[in-house]
Amino acid sequence: MASWSTRPVRGCLCGAALVLCTAGCGLSDQEAPNPVGPSSSSGIAQPSPPPATPVPAPAPAPQPPTPPSPDPEPVTGLVLRRLLTTAIEEEYRTGTIYAAVVVDYGTVSPFLESAARQSGHAATLGALFETRGWPVPANDWTLEGVVHFRNVPEACAGAAVAELRIASMYGGYLDDYNLPRDVRVTFGELREASLTKDLPPFLACAP
Description:
The structure is a single chain. The protein is mainly α. It has a domain at 77-205: Up-down Bundle (Ferritin). The chain has helices at residues 77-105, 111-131, 152-176, 181-205, and strands spanning 7-9, 12-14, 19-20. The protein has a three-stranded antiparallel β-sheet with strand order 1-2-3, with no helix packed on it. Strand 2 and strand 3 form a beta hairpin. Helix 1 packs antiparallel against helix 2 (111-131) and helix 3 (152-176) runs antiparallel to helix 4 (181-205).
């Protein structure tokens, strides 16, 4: 009776007379397939390749500078006449306010001097009307139609505000309009007079 000898070979039972094997029985250890793969025979993972260096986007092309806007045409006609009318009306009104302070409180300084200067400013503007053949607007302001103050210091504060308003008016015209030369020079001189001659004494007597 034949004897059985058994030898385990990778999950197979082989005998002299009978072989009970599954696929792959009889392969030696050297011939056995490597389940990990040739690149991983050592069991150590291979390093990943370095990431690609991003290519920087090209810099935008420089834009050409914006050319300056051409100066507008000098104002004439109805626009210029409106500006001159607004200016002379403001000088009339301010001069009348100063005259009302003199009537209410006597010949107090600096209202007496400033009232005379406002009259001169209005005459300077009137000459610009006459140069262009336009009638000079009349002064329709009356003592009863302007503000009256409770005391001289309060009147000084109100006069300082009036002079700043006049200077701002002329400054706005000079900045916003391409004025004829004679009008530009006159507006600049009247603005300077308000800031340097009329405003300082009013600030000094204001509370």
